[in-house]
Predict the 3D structure of the following.
Amino acid sequence: MNKDDINSIKTLLSSPKAIVIIPHKNPDGDAVGSTLGLYHYLKQYNHNVNIVAPNDYPDFLKWMPEENSIIKYDIQKSEGDSLIQDAELIFTLDFNSLGRIGQMEEVVSNSNATKIMIDHHQQPDDYAKYMYSDVSMSSTCEMVFNFIEMLDDLDKINSDIATCLYTGIMTDTGSFRFPSTTSATHTIIGHLIQKGANNSEIHNNIYDTNSYARLQLLGRALSNLKVIPEYRTAYITLTQEELNTFDFKKGDTEGFVNYGLSLKGIIFAAIFIESHQDEIIKISLRSKGDFSVNELSRTHFHGGGHTNAAGGRSDLNMKETIEKFISILPNYKQDLNL
Ligand code: 5GP
Ligand code: MN
């Protein structure tokens, strides 16, 4: 995004517009935080702003300021369709390929709105007129902060914006510990706390609202953990039956994959979660160092993401998926088997 782009966007935003902001399907903390942060910013200018999410997000995000105004396309399709069709501007946040918004793909592709992408994933598609795409960024929330700064509007950051952006930076950086966390990230975090983000309360809202059943599910996931030392790999499986036993709710398995990566010597971790509803095995992949789970997921599991965090899916059953997973490890011998 260069100076000319910023000037054009400033001009676009200088009069009230019909604006829709869209996060990816199964929105996470960064997707919800960045869309709400941008929403609270744009609302200050009398734009007609709506967030249309492809579907619902976990309960641990359902305290964020005005999150209850987010439209969920899977259950509010006609409202979502008309907002998208009437939109003059569409912001797409925390994803870079329209395949990531599921059922919304068609209506968004067909819309004549000017599209603006703000995103930190690899290999962006080129559906947007204006692209702020930067894979070095910790989070889309950090980029929304930068975007507001580029518009010379840091003084517009209020406690609602600060709270939303803090949340997404915190969740996408594993609470400021992943390598994507830079001194600039911390400078922004300092600014957000100054503007009213209550760091301890936000942490509490996100991480300390476990149900007993979720902890029991974590127990099961950990007892299912398998290690393949020769490839410095660890993986977890959870079947639909196990999820049912522990009263699975959306978001309950968030972060489980990281336990594999916390094992000494392990640099590649995966979790395979069966979904009868979607008829897939949902896969989350994490790595340390240069080993790219984005590449592995794109090549073998219809997915993508970042070098060290990616997602994907398998249409095979659990047993076949694990067999496939184990069978591809030798392809990565060079990176994994040091
Ligand atoms: P998670 O494993 O937490 O679902 O996702 C890890 C990262 O990969 C996130 O940045 C997420 O946006 C991205 N990601 C997850 N699933 C997919 C997918 O199916 N396709 C692509 N391109 N990215 C994904
Ligand atoms: Mn993100």
